[in-house]
C-alpha cells in the first residue's frame, strides 16, 4: 500500500513547480493531464479506501442482520404458521429417539409421525416459497428437524437482510458500490488532474470516506 502522507507532499511540490513554469513560459492556462505515477497513486487510494469502507459496512450488515434474524426467528416461524408444528416435531423426534432402541412398535409409530410432520412442514414451506420467493428454495431435500430449522434460519436471515438493505446503512452499502465504479470512471476519464481530484474529493465526501486532499492540490490549475 502506498504511504499517502509520505508521497503526497513530493508529488504536489513537483507538480506545482512544473505547472507554474509552464504558465510563465506560455502565458496561458494549460490543462495538465493526469500522469502515470499520479494515476497509480489514486488507483491505490481508491482501492484501499473503498475496500476499508465496504468491509466496515458489510461487517455491520452481517452482525446486525444476524442478531436481528436471531431475535426475529420465533416471530418469523409463527408468521409462517409452522411454530406449533416445529414444537410437535421436536417432541415427536425426541420420543422417537427415546424409544427406538427398545420398542419396535413405538419406533415405527414415531417414524411415521416424524415423517408426516416433516412432510407437512416441507409442504407449508413450498407454498410459502411461491409467495415469498426465497433465493434458497431447496425445500425438497428437507427430511429432518435439523434440516427444516436450518432452512428456516437461512430464509429468515435472507428476509431480514432484504429489510436491512432498505435502511440507511443498507443504502450506504449500495451507494458505496455504485460510487466506487463512479470513482474508477472519473480516474480514467482523461480529465485534468484538478478536475479528477475535485471529483474524487466529492465522491469521498458523499460516501463518508476520509481522504484528506490538500487544498493546494485542489487549487492546481485555478
Task: Describe the protein in words.
Among the domains are: 80-159; 165-222, no CATH class. Helices cover 77% and strands 0% of the residues. It is built from eight helices and no strands. It has helices spanning 4-26, 36-79, 83-99, 104-132, 145-164, 168-187, 193-206, 215-218. It is rod-shaped. It starts with a helix and ends with a helix.
Outline the fold blueprint.
Blueprint: H1 4-26, H2 36-79, H3 83-99, H4 104-132, H5 145-164, H6 168-187, H7 193-206, H8 215-218
Helix pairs in contact: 2-5, 2-6, 3-4, 6-7
The secondary-structure element order is HHHHHHHH
> Given the structure, what is the number of helices?
8
Fraction of residues in H or I helices: over 70%
Name the average pLDDT: 83
Distance between the termini: 31 Å
How many DSSP E strands?
0
Large-scale geometry: rod-shaped
The helix/strand class is mainly alpha
Task: Report low-confidence residues grouped into runs of 5 or more.
Answer: 1-9
Range of strand content:
under 5%
Q: Write down the Rg.
A: 30 Å
How is the main sheet built?
none
Annotation keywords:
222 residues, single chain, disordered N terminus, mainly alpha
Brief sketch in words of this structure:
This protein has eight helices and no strands. It has helices spanning 4-26, 36-79, 83-99, 104-132, 145-164, 168-187, 193-206, 215-218.
